[in-house]
Amino acid sequence: MKSITDVIVKNMLSINQEETLVLIKIDITLLNLAPIKSDFSVIQLASLIDYPTEKISILLKKAYGKNFNQIVNLYRLDYMEKLIFQEVFNKRKINISELIKLSGFKSRNSYYVTLKANKY
Asked: Which of 11, 19, 36, 49 has the fewest CB atoms below 10 angstroms from its CB?
């Protein structure tokens, strides 16, 4: 996934200062909540960052070219990767089903669909 800095630099002309700040708030919120809340929604995000739902969806499409659910699943994939590295580092047996749930995916299928779509 592109970092927030990459997005800001690439879209500097089309993303204004307010949108940049909102993207940073979205990034921080999703880093903290997307992996642990399998039912996390754009409505919850809008409430947490005090920004209209419709504008969040438009901004994410503008910045990343993806919708909210796609973005959330990218954060979950990133979190899953960190969990796997942590398990390997600690020399523990990896239980993929457990890690999928810990990453916020509702099912193995949703994890594999996201993984395939993003060619990890």
From this structure: 36
User: What gap in Å lies between CA 9 and CA 48, rounded to an integer?
Assistant: 26
* Residue at 100: amino acid letter: I
pLDDT digits (tens, 9 = 90+) for 11-66: 555 778 899 899 999 999 999 887 878 899 999 999 999 999 999 999 999 988 89
For residue 65, is it left (φ>0), alpha (ψ between -120 and 50) or beta?
Answer: left
Task: Based on DSSP, count helices (H) and strands (E) in the chain, helices before strands.
Answer: 7, 0
Stated pTM of the model: 0.80
Spatial separation of the C-alpha atoms in residues 67 and 8, rounded to whole Å? 17
